[in-house]
Write a structure and sequence with these properties.
single chain; 151 residues; mainly alpha; 2 strands; elongated
């Protein structure tokens, strides 16, 4: 037993029902009509349907013809202008005069506030010995100050 669509009211009913329980349309006549059409029409490849309801054979299928050429890609004008401006600007990495990478502002603040955690970010490639000396010196100074404080 499967659910099929009533040809009259388009609601789901049992495939074994003789009449639609919603509108009273006779299902035996519709089934006989569909079988007669299937016998008269040549066999064609069936489509695989995953979870859709059976199609009403009385309604013709809508077919969309393939386009002769693909539609052009539509892009906002501002996006193209922005891309051209970015392409015109030369890309230069930010490097200090001594060849090391700069310490970002957030890292400076966090090394000052929580040096035991954030000073380890200075061990990444590109930071100079001077930057590491300041960071780890600040950490050593805070450890020394906390160990010498009176209790």
């Amino acid at each position: 037993m499967a659910l099929i669509e009533c040809y009259e009211c388009k609601r789901n009913i049992s495939s074994e029902a003789l009449v639609c329980i919603h509108c009273g349309a006779p299902m035996a006549e519709q089934a006989a009509h569909v079988q007669a059409q299937a016998a008269a029409a040549p066999t064609k490849a069936s489509t695989i349907s995953f979870g859709s309801l059976p199609r009403n054979k009385a309604v013709p299928e809508a077919v969309v013809p393939p386009a002769a050429e693909p539609l052009p890609k539509v892009m906002p004008a501002a996006a193209g202008r922005r891309r051209r401006q970015q392409a015109a600007q030369p890309v230069s990495p930010q490097i200090n005069a001594d060849g090391s990478r700069p310490v970002e502002g957030w890292l400076k603040i966090m090394i000052f506030l929580l040096p035991m955690v954030f000073v380890w970010f200075l061990l990444r490639n590109g930071h100079s010995a001077k930057q590491r000396l300041f960071g780890f010196g600040w950490l050593a100074l805070l450890i020394l100050a906390s160990s010498l404080s009176p209790k």
